[in-house]
Amino acid sequence: MAWLTTHLKTLFASKKPKNPPKRKPPTREEKGKFRATDDDDNAASPNYNIQSSPKRSNSNRSSSTNSSDITDSDLLPIIHYEELHLIPQILTQYPAFYLVGHPLPRPPLPQAKQILTSPDSVKRSLIHPRKSTVRGYNHAKPSGREWWDYTPDNGGTLLTLDDESFRHVTREYFEKSIALLQKICGEFNTTYTENGDKRMVVPTEVMNDIGFSTMRYLRYSPTILERPNVPKVEPPVASSSSSSHSASSSSSKPKEDGYSLPRMEAHTDHGVLTLMTATEPSGLYVWDRNGKIFSAPPIENTVLVIAGDLMSHFTALEGKSIIDDGKHAIGEGTVLPTVHAVVLPKGGAERYSVAVFLRPKRDMVVSKHRVRKESGEIVEQDMTFGRWAEEKGQIRGRRCWMVGQERLSGGQEL
Ligand SMILES: O=C(O)CCC(=O)C(=O)O
Ligand SMILES: [Fe+2]
Question: Which of 116, 199, 240, 404 could make an SS bond with 219 (beta carbons 3.0 to 4.6 A apart)?
């Protein structure tokens, strides 16, 4: 811990108190221009400039979640591309941040719409031969959601549309986003120190190789929930009660309560970092380490960045492992994986989103795992990224492993 405390003192503490006073929400005039530090500090160090997100109206917030504790002061920071060095500290304080001034092209939201509104026959042809949920087309109809994962191998020519422009835009956004996320990882390696020397928290292979990274196009829509192919169950012949009729006659329709809105259950992503962008209506929420919820609607010209499980693993206390030591591996410089969920507001609109996941190869060894054999002997076994992610999916409550919200578990397979 000493290495980080000392380093953070040098880098940040003179500019920002350890427990900063709660920020006041910006006034309309300050919209998008609020500074988290006072101006004297900024005069000494003009680079330390965190903008809060512009004030948002309540109409952006879903009325369908229990988000009454979301107030206007719950704003995620906006970081400028020229200030990437702030990100390691920001991610220990906030569950997500918006990045502005970045070199990415326009987000491929029209391409997300194009592929996810293709005829069913086309979608069927894009399903992975081994039904991978992270390559090609998939759907989760009970959640009102469908998605398509880009396959970077073969230059992005597999399980994709026969459309040159679609392929070009998709590939370009993926490659530039991965390069951006890798650059952000580089900032972690210049921020963390050990005995005065820089500590490589993110392995070189993550920064030099696309590994098992992918990009996902998602569509959330009430029309997906309708499941038109599910045969309608006729109500049993009523004896005396008329209520049984009304209950079963709605079986092929989405229920009108909050749980039948298009959604993605709360989860953390397996990888290192995820970059996201979406259309309105938003419905994206992120949790901080104290369980506080932030609404994360799309903001023009920005992308949202969150941390995945592996970032916690990389930034765990030196000599400790999240996998073996659990919470004892968490220090003040440990970035926790961002718990996030999507719940579409009522009203029937569709939402499209794009998520780019920076992940290493599945066979990357993330830990020497200590296991006890039947004889009682303790041996070391390699824990690979792929196996770790798979185990997480099998353990109830682990999809949001830091929060342990079993109620909300769900999410994606790797
Ligand atoms: O649709 C979104 O904005 C989030 C998608 C997501 O969290 C995921 O695919 O892991
Ligand atoms: Fe996610």
Answer: 116
Using one digit for the tens of pLDDT, what is the confidence trace for 187-225? 999 999 888 888 999 999 999 999 999 999 999 999 998
The ipTM estimated for the assembled molecules is 0.99
Tens of pLDDT, residue by residue over 339-358, are: 999 999 988 899 999 999 99
CATH 3.30.420.10 correct for 2-236+244-363: no
Nearest residue (by CA) to ligand 1, atom 2, is 353
Q: Which ligand is nearest to the CA of 107?
A: 1
| Contact present, 369 and 382 (Cβ < 8 Å) | yes
96-100 and 77-80 beta bridge pairing? parallel
Nearest ligand to the C-alpha atom of residue 308: 2
| Closest approach atom of ligand 1 to CA 216 | 9
The half-sphere exposure of 318 on its side-chain side, counting CA atoms within 13 A, is 13
Tokens of residue 306, six digits: 């969150």
- pTM as predicted: 0.77
Residues with Cβ–ion distance below 5 A, ligand 2? 269
Sketch the domain layout of the chain as residue ranges: 2-236+244-363
Q: Tell which atom from ligand 1 comes closest to the C-alpha of 284.
A: 3
| Ligand 1 close to Cβ of residue 412 (< 6 A) | yes
Residue percentage of the chain with pLDDT more than 90: 53
pLDDT of 318 strictly over 60:
yes
